């Protein structure tokens, strides 16, 4: 009896894998359970898999990464129709809900979200960055001030007879000074105090 249940379960799984979950998707290579078509990617290489799929299955095809289907557009006219003419239908990000929930407690930020939440986060980030001087000459001016300070410091060290100059420590202080001027409004040039922090 247990054997028949196992055979029935196995046949149901094969039917689901071979037919049911693939029936609404474009054609593509047969996916193995758990790993999908990773063997094809390994066999043909990550750079040539699109060429292989295009030659064998046409300009629109499906391959599987694990249990997730990936629909691949390999024809210019199809790409233009999908992403230019019907762009709103394809505007979104892949759903990695399980990973996001496991690692971060959900999808947050600009990178892992889409839709209205993405627009809201993007709007907020651009607003904050513009207030800090992004897109204006203010940021460029701050960076140039730090570069001038670095060059003056190195010239002073050369005049004092130092043979070795640590450029890395100067860059560290300059970057810290730029961040400090963005957050607190004043530059920070005391190397010894910076190193203590």
From TrEMBL:
InterPro entries linked: Cyt_P450, Cyt_P450_E_grp-I, Cyt_P450_sf, Cytochrome_P450_fam2
Pfam families associated with the record: p450
Coiled coil: 144-171
GO molecular function: heme binding; iron ion binding; oxidoreductase activity, acting on paired donors, with incorporation or reduction of molecular oxygen, reduced flavin or flavoprotein as one donor, and incorporation of one atom of oxygen
UniProt cross-references to Gene3D superfamilies, sorted A to Z: Cytochrome P450
Keyword tags: Coiled coil, Iron, Metal-binding, Monooxygenase, Oxidoreductase
Gene Ontology biological-process entries: organic acid metabolic process; xenobiotic metabolic process
Gene Ontology cellular-component annotations: cytoplasm
Family under the similarity heading: Belongs to the cytochrome P450 family.
PANTHER family noted in UniProt: CYTOCHROME P450 508A4-RELATED, CYTOCHROME P450 FAMILY
Name of protein: Cytochrome P450
The organism's taxonomic lineage, starting at the top: Eukaryota, Metazoa, Ecdysozoa, Nematoda, Chromadorea
């Amino acid at each position: 009896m247990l054997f028949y249940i196992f055979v029935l379960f196995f046949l149901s799984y094969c039917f689901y894998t071979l037919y049911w979950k693939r029936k609404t998707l474009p054609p593509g290579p047969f996916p193995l359970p758990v790993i999908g078509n990773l063997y094809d990617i390994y066999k043909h290489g990550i750079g040539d898999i699109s060429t292989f799929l295009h030659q064998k299955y046409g300009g629109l095809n499906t391959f599987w990464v694990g249990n997730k289907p990936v629909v691949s557009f390999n024809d210019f006219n199809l790409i233009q129709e999908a992403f230019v003419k019907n762009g709103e239908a394809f505007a979104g990000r892949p759903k990695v809900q399980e990973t996001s929930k496991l690692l971060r407690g959900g999808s947050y930020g600009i990178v892992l979200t889409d839709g209205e939440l993405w627009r809201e986060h993007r709007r907020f980030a651009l607003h904050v960055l513009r207030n800090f001087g992004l897109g204006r000459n203010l940021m460029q001016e701050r960076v140039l001030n730090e570069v001038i300070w670095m060059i003056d410091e190195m010239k002073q060290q050369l005049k004092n007879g130092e043979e070795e100059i640590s450029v890395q420590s100067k860059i560290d202080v300059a970057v810290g000074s730029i961040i400090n001027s963005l957050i607190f409004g004043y530059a920070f040039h005391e190397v010894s105090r910076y190193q203590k922090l």
